[in-house]
Amino acid sequence: MLGSASTLCRVRRIAGIVLAVLLLGGVVAAVVAGRQGEDKGTATKTVRGVIGSEKADFFADPDVVKALAAKGYTVKAEASGSWAMEGLDLKGYDFAFPSSQAPARQLAHKYHVQEPLPRPFYSPLVVVAHRSAADVLAGNGLATLDGRNRGTLKMRAYLDAARHDRTWQQLKGATKYGELTGALYIASTDPESSNSGALYLAASSYVAGGGKVVSGKADVERTAPLLHKLVSVQGAQQSSSDAVFRDFVSGAGNPLVLVYESQVAALLAEQHAVDDLVVLYPDTTVNSDHTVVPLDAAGRALGELLSTDPALRKLAVRHGFRPQGDAAEFVAATGDRSAYLNQKLTGVRQAPVPTSGVLHDMARRARG
Amino acid sequence: MRRRPLLALAVATAALLTACTAEAEHKDDPAAPKPGTLRVLASSELSDMTAVFDRVRKDTGVTIRPTYMGTLDAVDLLARGKADGAYDALWLSSDDYLRLRPEAAKKVVSETPVMSSPVAVGVKPATVRALGWKPGSVTWSQVEQAVQDGRLTYGMTDPARSNSGFATLVSVASALSGAQSALTDADVAKATPRLKEFFKGQKLTSGSSGWLATAYRRRGTVDALLNYESVLEGIPGLTVIRPRDGVVTADYPFSSLAATGARTREDVRKVTADLRTDAVQQLITETTHRRPVVPSVRPAAGLDTARRRELPFPGSRSVADGLLDSYENELRRPSRTVYVLDTSGSMEGGRIAALKKALAGLTGDFRDREEVTLMPFGSAVKSVRTHVVDPGDPEAGLDAIRRDTDALSADGGTAIYTSLEQAYDQLGAGKDAFTSIVLMTDGENTAGAEAGDFDGFYRALGGSRREIPVFPILFGDSSRSELQHIADLTGGRLFDAQQGSLDGAFEEIRGYQ
């Protein structure tokens, strides 16, 4: 048995060499790709990229794979924290696709990529809560609810509570719920490695600064104590928005979790109704602009394709992202989820994001 | 404070390989990289996932080859760069501790949580009734009260070796310290007196969840086990309670490593995508009692879905390591061990040198308050020397152990059973400690009492001495069946230093002492 297997191996190896000699050059890549069992018929171009974890389901969706193949692409995407991408060796990759502009700019600078960078879609940060937690927040003036599954988180009141180490048991109506004890806080990802955690600090510092974006050392200094509190209370933090959301879905983790709206919208598209879920839109939030950093021509072509191809834009909406440039697309496609989603972002203000250097500083101080 | 030396305890599993590549020629080396096989550095809790591994292989063509290791050891390996090139992926019960070590955390590219399981308390139904507990509303304080009243004893795994033990320790410390947010050094210090009381109730310790369950069944007098819900659900006849005031939950992130190539990471991607499919999530929750992370799959029957507060994991290494250190050296009951060491003539040369080296390695690992007795034997016991690691001056005791180790010399026959009987006599009854006997021999019994005599001796022992397990180490030409019999008879566990190293075996036993 061993003998026959190794004979087979030898034959196959020889066949491989013969092929390689015959088809020297670019075609070899297609043979390799074919041997891995994909797209044997069509000659798609394999494009390799590193992406924020919240986009993993999008690229894994068979319809997305099909739509990309129709345009001649096979995308191999691997998840990484947006800020952690800077530490990766991206040799051999065609693109990086972090979750916002700041890490994208930094990567563009490192790899000498020409601006502008394609920004196919965006998603605001939201807080997911179980009904019990949302009700208690609303009963204590920290949130307002529009119906059963949607509401607005009052950031100023929340930050005030955090500043004063407010616990759940100090809030009216919390004792009914056993799980609502301990410090009141929003769980986020690690701001030093992950985008959503960093943007949480951006939004919080903007509110704490009375509507002023943090821009220099003095501002960083002034906001540091509060931001440190928001982070240190959480203990060890997850490094990806996918992980915190999965914990929430599996019933573990903190009652309030900061995620991207896209993650919630995608879950609802699959699930239709998640009864015990309330989506709280912070009255001041930050949009994550999912930004493509092309590392070569193929990467740039993919970025453009994601921005312009109607089929792919539609699929992006299915995964909960808001395509740039046309708000109506998202509103129309998420009509069935309007009980959960604030489709037009009514009453939600966008905080500007500090420059990446400042954001890094803020994150370091908050963690330290 | 002393840090224990982190020795990697690798127990590699066998793997099938049929790959048509140059690597196929290295078939004998289980550590060699192979396309289509992921060498996964994994928590030992994952050894119940075989059915899932098989399913993943069928779905993706990728073989998962786990090497089981404690979290601390695995994180240390990563931090020192020793996992680079040796492993293709990481799959711990939780990456919480990993994140406290930036040198290790930066070795990880992406983490995909696959399933979850909270820390829980598995209690005998009779005890639940006697305590008047309602399983849905029990708190850690009630558990603490029951321990204080002498109405509850329990077993848990060693936090330094097993992730389940570590998560349990953090849960208990967080809950009993009254900390409202992530634990700080001050919280731990404040909680120390209460924790000391709490850990007086711990009557069983183990380096692995599997042996803990076996020892629990055998002992019969322990009321409860603290472990992950998934482990406890797998032990028939336990009422599984998730304390109402909070738990630490493992989320089992399958993680890809920065030092690997694109092709390996593509295999990791395939595997994680498959693990998240409804079918595999269903298989996971049904076969392992863990909770799914996709909303379309319901947790297996029997897993209560009422919410629990998640206790935050410490955010700094100093807090986590400090807690572990006080558990080992201050909070837990001390250990008390007789090392019955074969120094017969056949140990001459390399073997006795290996023994001396292994024992010298252990001296860095003995805990404060630990009582160590060295009992070398040949045709009879040669000497009995007992040392205690005094918290006021730990080095004095450790130096004495090193001196005695140095003085060991090989001569005489092999009186295994007579020496074991003497070890039991030496231990007597009484002291409040985790008491055990380690037996290292390189040959078969040639002098003194026979196996049958020892069986009779053991069966005639009084209750508390019969609870002392023997952990035999298979070494040199010793007989597996003879030593396995001793382990089975006394409720111990056999450790293999014929396949693995003598250092490794001694080190692994530490988790059971």
Automatic annotation (TrEMBL), chain A:
Name this protein carries in UniProt: Substrate-binding domain-containing protein
Species name: Streptomyces actinomycinicus
UniProtKB/TrEMBL annotation, chain B:
InterPro entries associated with the record: CLCR, VWF_A, vWFA_dom_sf
Ranges where the VWFA domain occurs: 336-513
Alphabetical UniProt keywords: Signal
Pfam families given in the database record: SBP_bac_11, VWA_3
Signal peptide: 1-24
Acetylation among keywords: no
The name this protein goes by in its record: VWA domain-containing protein
Organism: Streptomyces actinomycinicus
